[in-house]
Amino acid sequence: MERMETSIEVNYVGALATPVQRDGEELTRRILETDTYRTAMRSVEMLYAADPQGSTPAGKATIGRAAHSLATAATQYAICSDPEIPMLMWGVTAPHEFQGLSSPRSGFGIENPDNVYRHTAVSGSSTYEIRGKINYPRPTEQHFELRDAIPGTTSLTAEGGIQLAGLHSDDIAVEADGSFVITLDAQPANGRTNHIRIPAKQDSFLIIRDLLDDWSTENVVRLDLVRTSGPAAREPRSLEQLTTRSVELLTQMAPFWLDYFNKYFYSEATNYVRPARLRPAGRGLSTGGWFDLNDGEALVVTVDPLGAASLGIQLSDPWGVAYEYIDRTSSLNTVQAEPNPNGTYSFVISREDPGAYNWLDPEGHNSGMVAVRWQSLPVNAPVELAIRRSEVVKLDQLRERLPAGTSFITAQQREHQQTFRASNFLRRYTD
């Protein structure tokens, strides 16, 4: 094996503002502008239009937005899919202006706005190090998940693929200055505390999630990925090769996620959130459902945090792309929401603003999907109590149906809530 030890000097501002990120976003823009890829995106739009959701008002209105978002994610995965030239890239996020570039939306799979997602391909034929530096306050949770392949290109499971290995922030040894190193290779840990074992002689896909519960204080962890040894790297792929790979991925991912949501969400009754399920590798609980409301109606979902370090609820369009969440409340977590007197949380989903503080805003649409996630959950938490209730309520009866003491706010207070939220979200670009 050729030794490839590299010295990394980090002099950029913000944990996400890496040279790799800027190069990746520039490549993404160039791929999206090719005629070949535009044709592939139109094929996704046609696929969506033929689905039952394509004939609904919300589904029809969001087809173009959703197809473009998934297509952007596919290009980012293509750029990061060479384990010989690993690129740790941030993606699956909102549109943004960053490092002098305007980058489009790249969310899919009901992405969690509390998460900062980074990803790369790795190979069992190489060795790697992830060199991290925590800027306190740290994320509520950081999770390193090794998968068999890019989400949406493998087995249709409840997790969107197969998990091979993982490492949780609670198990990572960190130096006094907040620095840490994680090793990744095909060998057993052999006493190495921070280690992820890669299956030998095959490529795998690494997804890293920084979970920010308090957007106003918690900081993204600085991460740099170094390939320390392995076979001599091939030449970087050309724009044409990356475009071809992007089309291949998009052609797999679009029907996969359509099938996923039809199987796990739209097969259930409307306006219903199913019981929560345990997730693999100690990743807590999750559940979901879909809503389709008439004007003047709301879906009220009451959940129990069960002592989890993080509980969040998110809305997406009918295709699984999150509704706007930077300056609108299409997602809420327990830092952003107000609890009921008994410690549960009641969230209100409705097209119109009902004035409830815990309003989940579907961006003016009457239908979409909802996901609920509990993370860093205590051992033996009563999973059966996670979802307390989900019911459709007339807006003119909402105050009497919600728990006593529920906060209702004015339009001016809503604007303040949204402005405060947006300013907190934007911290992740610079801190």
Helix content: 10-25%
Radius of gyration: 21 Å
Structural class: alpha+beta
Q: Would you tell me the overall average pLDDT?
A: 95
Q: What series of H and E elements makes up the topology? A: EHHHHEEEEEEEEEEEHEEEEEEEEEEHH
What is the oligomeric state here? single chain
Topology overview:
Layout: E1 2-3, H1 19-32, H2 35-50, H3 57-61, H4 63-79, E2 89-91, E3 96-98, E4 101-103, E5 115-123, E6 127-133, E7 141-147, E8 163-168, E9 179-185, E10 195-197, E11 203-211, E12 222-230, H5 239-264, E13 272-273, E14 277-278, E15 285-292, E16 297-303, E17 310-316, E18 331-333, E19 345-349, E20 359-360, E21 367-375, E22 387-394, H6 398-401, H7 411-425
Parallel strand pairs: 9-10, 19-20
Antiparallel strand pairs: 1-12, 2-5, 3-4, 5-11, 6-9, 6-12, 7-8, 7-11, 13-15, 14-15, 15-21, 16-19, 16-22, 17-18, 17-21
Helix pairs in contact: 1-4, 1-5, 2-4, 2-5, 4-5
Description:
This protein is an alpha+beta fold. The protein has two domains: 2-258, no CATH class; 265-429, Jelly Rolls. The chain contains seven helices and 22 strands. It has helices at residues 19-32, 35-50, 57-61, 63-79, 239-264, 398-401, 411-425; strands at residues 2-3, 89-91, 96-98, 101-103, 115-123, 127-133, 141-147, 163-168, 179-185, 195-197, 203-211, 222-230, 272-273, 277-278, 285-292, 297-303, 310-316, 331-333, 345-349, 359-360, 367-375, 387-394. The strands form five sheets. Strands 13, 14, 15, 17, 18 and 21 form a six-stranded antiparallel beta sheet that branches. The chain has a five-stranded mixed beta sheet with strand order 1-12-6-9-10, with no helix packed on it. A five-stranded antiparallel beta sheet has the order 2-5-11-7-8. A hairpin with a 6-residue loop joins β14 (277-278) and β15. The chain is globular, with a radius of gyration of 21 Å.
